[in-house]
Structures are given as structure tokens and as C-alpha cells.
Amino acid sequence: xxxxxxxxxxxxxxxxxxxxxxxxxxxxxxxxxxxxxxxxxxxxxxxxxxxxxxxxxxxxxxxxxxxxxxxxxxxxxx
Length: 78
Description:
CATH topology: Alpha-Beta Plaits
Shape: globular
Strand order of the largest sheet: 2-3-1-4
Largest sheet: 4 strands, antiparallel
Number of strands: 4
Number of domains: 1
Helix content: 25-40%
Strand content: 25-35%
CATH architecture: 2-Layer Sandwich
Radius of gyration: 11 Å
Mean pLDDT: 78
Low-confidence stretches: none
Number of helices: 3
Distance between the termini: 8 Å
């Protein structure tokens, strides 16, 4: 799976996003692939379907409460 995130304005935002993703149930082997301005791209493994991964990410309290949830763009590649 790959996840692109926009709207990150400071190193604190990036660290918060990494922490939130690392604490998402079912997600493993998180890797930061690219940082470009206010966007970054991650790859990760997920134990489940694409839809389940989307649900888990949308239920992550840090993503929801930080307002970053509105900036998420979820990309999946087989």
C-alpha cells in the first residue's frame, strides 16, 4: 500500500503523521518514500483489504483530531 499526505507544514507535522501511522492497528513496515514541500509519501504493509486499511486510517484519532484526515490521499498499488 502507499499513502500520500498533504498539508504538512513543519517537522512536527511529519513526526505526528509517522507516529499516528505507526500506531494504526494492522499496519506494519512503514517506510517514508518521499518528502516534497508540504507532502510526503509512505509505503506500508497492511493485514487486510484496501477498504479495511482506509477504515483503520480514518478511525485513527490522531489523524482525525489533527485535521490531517481531510488531507489524506490514499493510493493502492497491487
